[in-house]
């Protein structure tokens, strides 16, 4: 089997909709511009495709402003997929919208039944375990449900810390390869990555931490030159994508796709 942590044959994305202007945000730092977001999204999809992967591009959904952030709806594992249960009430309906596509791709589809919540942005699958951070969106009951399904499929799940004020665990970290994690210093200081090789994003470039390793590429937000240079020196092939509009909604590189 290929390495499920960063070798992927498929990805799912969803086009941003005009309703993106109503997307959730912790702080108002401006309204996202749809045309700019569409252009960046097209660059993102093109980068995924350039690795040889098939990208399933879903239509925009006006009724769900945050639906472009597909990562939060599903956890894709080699054994099957788990439909999430977002902690943001406005995002709950996105899961049902994603379900038919997931059913086309997987024989075994499970779900977080509730009343707990988990969002995909709080889950990092590494070469040896599944790390889950509790956050405002992911709670103890949701983590317990997830752990039960993951254990059935032979995965070990470990609960970790999400820094206060950070939307998701993965807002502050990403997987570079099975044993290497890119992290902010503030998250790494919690000790959650002990035993892994950890690369720190440059001071002041914390928003660069949400990147994705996708086959031979690392997709990262543009505008973080010191982190990009560090990754390049470490031997990663970095592709920089504009994240200016998604950043206004607390989104980054990982949330824009499901990868499997
Ligand atoms: C939200 O607040 O739910 C969206 N505006 C952003 C979601 C980002 N998702 C992710 O990082 N996995």
Automatic annotation (TrEMBL):
InterPro entries: DDAH-like (IPR033199). Keywords: Hydrolase. The active site is at residues 168, 255. GO terms for molecular function: amino acid binding; dimethylargininase activity. GO terms for biological process: arginine metabolic process; citrulline metabolic process; positive regulation of nitric oxide biosynthetic process. Pfam families: ADI. Substrate binds at residues 24, 66, 71-72, 91, 137, 249. Belongs to the DDAH family. This is Dimethylarginine dimethylaminohydrolase.
């Amino acid at each position: 089997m290929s390495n499920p942590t960063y070798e992927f044959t498929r990805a799912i994305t969803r086009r941003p909709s005009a309703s993106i202007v109503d997307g959730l945000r912790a702080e108002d730092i401006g309204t996202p511009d749809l045309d700019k977001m569409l252009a960046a999204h097209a660059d993102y999809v093109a980068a995924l495709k350039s690795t040889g992967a098939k990208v399933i591009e879903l239509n925009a959904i006006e009724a769900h402003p945050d639906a472009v952030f597909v990562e939060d709806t599903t956890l894709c594992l080699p054994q099957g997929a788990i439909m999430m249960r977002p902690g943001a009430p406005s995002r709950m309906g996105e899961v049902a919208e994603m379900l038919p596509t997931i059913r086309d791709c997987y024989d075994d589809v499970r779900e977080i039944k509730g009343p707990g919540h988990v969002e995909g942005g709080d889950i990092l699958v590494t070469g040896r375990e599944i790390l889950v951070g509790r956050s405002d969106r992911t709670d103890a009951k949701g983590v317990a449900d997830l752990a039960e399904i993951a254990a059935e499929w032979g995965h070990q799940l470990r609960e970790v810390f999400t820094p206060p004020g950070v939307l998701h665990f993965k807002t502050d970290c990403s997987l570079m390869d099975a044993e290497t994690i890119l992290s902010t210093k503030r998250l790494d200081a919690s000790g959650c990555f002990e035993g892994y090789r950890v690369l720190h994003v440059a001071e002041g470039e914390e928003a660069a931490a949400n990147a994705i390793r996708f086959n031979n590429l690392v997709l990262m937000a543009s505008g973080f030159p010191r982190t990009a240079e560090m990754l390049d020196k470490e031997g990663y092939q970095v592709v920089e994508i504009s994240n200016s509009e998604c950043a206004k909604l607390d989104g980054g590189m990982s949330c824009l796709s499901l990868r499997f």
